[in-house]
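To assess whether ligand presence alters the predicted conformation, the chain was also submitted together with D-xylitol-5-phosphate. Input:
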Amino acid sequence: MPDHSILITPSILAADLSHLQEEVDSIADAADWLQVDVMDGHFVPNLSFGAPVIKSLKTSLPLDIHLMVSNPADRVQEFLDLNVANITFHAEAVKKTKERKDLIAQIRAGGATAGIAINPETPIDTVGDVLDDLDLLLVMSVHPGFGGQGFIDHVLGQVQTARSAFPDLMIQMDGGIDDTTAPKCIKAGANNLVSGSFIFGASDRTMAIKSLLPS
Ligand code: DX5
């Protein structure tokens, strides 16, 4: 794993799923984390994959589970049982502060770091009740559900606001991140970039990952 302050997290949603192990192997040396987009076809219109697929993967990359599901509390344990590194749930799916705090506590007690995600239209202050409890804030730069979408610039202001208030928080961005949008994300204060189409669409994936980092 490379040593840099900005983490690059390829998303397997954009990988050739018929050769998933080879796809993961192709980015393993250059990537920092590996993101798994878990979609339930209800919170988002798409249906992706769950724990059985992840269980089949052989990788030393820290697994970052992005739960785009309506009932994340029902899904967390199956991923904790796989010793994943991070689990992020959506603020739009868990609205009550106590439920958010209980879920964060469960994730942490299970040995993973805990993150909360906000969609582009969700104001940052809607997660003010738990930002002190979190390990990671994911600011979506696309509407969740599909890879290959265009980057939504207005979310950069949310990232700046969060970074100003929480200098030590891991701030992750996800959606439409390539070598042109990555610098904007980093300048705004993000230090963990999720990228799917750009990385897995590249012939040289190591170069693609390096192109996301400050030169
Ligand atoms: C959206 C997904 C995507 C994926 C990366 O629900 O979360 O953001 O991880 O997508 P692209 O292809 O835009 O990098």
